[in-house]
Amino acid sequence: MSAPAIESETGPEAATSTSAMEVLPPTPPKVCRECGTRLEGPTQRVFCSHLCANTFNQRELSRQRMKDLPPTAPKMCVNCGVSIVLPDYYRGHPGRAARRKFCSQLCAARWLARQPETLKRVRAPRPNQARKMTRLWRTSPERFLTERRRANVSRGPRVPHPPRQCPACKEHKVWRKDKKYCSRECWLRVIGADPFHRRVPIATKVCPTCGGTFRVRVTLPQMFCSRECRDKSEYVKSAIRRYHTGRKRPAETRERIRLAAIGRRYPKRDAIPELTLRSLLEQMNVTFDDHVPIEGVCQPDYVVRAQKVALFADGKYWHCDPRFYPDGPINSTQRFVVAKDKRQDNELRAMGWSVIRFWETDLKKNPGDCMRRLREVLCRPQ
What would the pLDDT profile of 302-321 be if each residue is shown by its tens digit? Predict the structure, then answer.
């Protein structure tokens, strides 16, 4: 019995569904709600980073707080009678809004100039004039009063600087000579900071490894967008290489440094394995020297010059004891120390020296076997 044939999807319904699928517009890519950076791949995220999320949330929270605050009451300028336009920043500071009495600094200066007590107000003398005025008061009080009156009258009220237009909002005027913007909000808007919370401007940088952009505070010396890019960069690799290898010195200089290091006593204080080996030599009444360099090759822990024997007490970790590390060295330090030990042993044996190395574990658990090895080497006939 044959299987029933599957009817192909034909007819007007199939054509309608196919045309509908073709007409559907492509899904727009998702972008960050704060900076507009494109979010790659299928993701449920709304922001590209925690920095954008915190910035967006803080700004929305500030707006909500400003909506909940009562509006500022309208005020009139004491000098010209024009209504004072207070920015939204004053809504959160009712005390500052209550102290605002003039629409501009020019009106404040003009109002103060009309007050009779303004001309009578005594200004504090400059530091270099204080000694002069004190000397005049002691020598001639009449001349002191004349000079003081002349100084106060010559200064007079402060003349305001001609107003300039704010380059940020293009609406308000700037009256102070040492200011460039009309308010703090305009200044923060120009440098790209949050006018309510964030005071440090945010900069957009390009990662030198992947080429992507990321946002970071201007005060932070961040160069890469992530730790992965930092570890892959050639800049960090070269820095690590310089840190480990140091400056490039000539071969003669390196050789002098090596010989000087061999000449110094190292380590300055013997460890437990060295002290155990020393006690065994003292029990055998053997004449020995400790930490003596041998012809610029190395500095053994103990040297018996009569039999030309070099003794070493090696730790199980640094010198890679094969009983604890059967697979060999596990890091670069152990590989370096093992290679150095082999090189020193070959050079000493080539010069006619006998080399005996004792492991830390043997000196601690089997001191009798170590003493027997010492007797075999030191008591053999020459």
Answer: 999 888 999 999 999 989 99
Do residues 321 and 357 lie in contact, with contact meaning Cβ atoms separated by under 8 Å?
no
SS3 content of the chain, % helix, strand, coil (to 5): 45, 10, 45
Tell me the two tokens of residue 253.
């200089």
- CA angle (119, 125, 126) in 5-degree steps: 135
- Report phi then psi at 228, rounded to 5: -60, -45
Domain with CATH 3.40.960.10 in the chain: 267-378
User: Minimal CA–CA distance to 150: which of 165, 162, 132?
Assistant: 132
CATH number for the segment(s) 267-378: 3.40.960.10
CA-closest candidate to residue 373, choices 346, 355, 352, 350: 355
What does the alpha-carbon distance between residue 235 and residue 220 come to, in Å, rounded to a whole number? Answer: 18
Q: Read off the pTM.
A: 0.36
| Closest alpha carbon to 314 in 375, 267, 254, 363 | 363
Residues 6+ apart with CB under 8 A from 143: 136
Q: Measuring CA to CA, which residue among 272, 275, 311 is closest to residue 292?
A: 311
Helices (H), the chain: 12-23, 50-68, 94-99, 105-114, 116-120, 127-139, 141-155, 184-191, 227-232, 234-245, 251-263, 272-283, 332-350, 360-365, 367-378
CB distance 318 to 237 below 8 Å? no
Comparing CA positions, the residue from 188, 200, 198, 187 lying closest to residue 55 is 198
Q: What is the pLDDT of residues 120-154, one digit of tens each?
A: 444 444 555 656 666 666 666 666 666 666 665 44
Q: Is the peptide bond before 267 cis (omega within 30 degrees of 0)?
A: yes
Tell me the average pLDDT across 337-345: 92
